[in-house]
Predict the structure.
Amino acid sequence: MTGRPRRSSGPGAPGDRPRADVAAVLATLRDRASDETLAQMGPRYGIHAEESLGVPMAAMKQIARDLGRDHALAAELWATAIYEARIVAALVDEPDLVTVEQMDRWCADFDNWALCDTVCFSLFDRAPRAWTRLEPWARDDREFVRRAAFALLWSLALHDTAAADAQFVEGLALLEQYADDERPLVTKSMSMSLRAVGRRNPFLQDAVHATAERLAERDSRPASRIGRTALREMS
C-alpha cells in the first residue's frame, strides 16, 4: 500500500440513492444492447467472452455512473458471468473494500483482454493491496492472469503517484523474468507497462532503458521484440 489518495465514492454513493437490483441492471444492459455491437466484439475488437450482450462501452460507463458506488452490487453483477455485467461491476465497486481474495478470484475469471484491462485500470490499481498481486499473477501461466500482472503494473505506473521507484524496479524485474512468453496478449501488456514506467521520471527512464537493452539482446523472439520496440520509441 502506498498511501495515495483514494478515489471517493462521490455523489453516487450507495447512501445517496436506493440500492439497485441486479435484475434491473441486467434489464438496462439488455435494453442498451445491439446485435451489431455483439457481432463486432470479436472481429473488430478482439473481445471474446463466454457470455455477452453487445453493449457499447460508453453505455456501460453511463449505466455505472447512474448506479454509483456499491460493493455488494458489484459482487452480484460479477457472479452473473456476463461480460457487460462484469464491466459494470468493476466500474461501481469500491476500491477500498477490495480484498486480495477478491482480486485473485476475479482475475481467475478473466477471459478476454478488455475485461482484464478494465478491471485493472478502473478498480484493482486503487485497491489497498494492489502491489502484492504483481508477482503471483506474473508467475501464473494462465494467459489473462499473467496479462493482468502487467496490465496492473501499467495502470499503477499511470495512476499511483505516491509509489516508490523501487516498486517499479521490482516490476521491471518481473517483466524481464517472464518476457519469453510468446502470447501476444501477454507481451502487449508488458510492452505498455514498460513504456508507462519509463515515463514516470528520469531514474525510471534509465531503468527501463537498461531493461530494454537486455531484452533486445536476448535469444528470445518475444523478449527481443519487447526490448527493441521500447528502445526504438525511447530514441
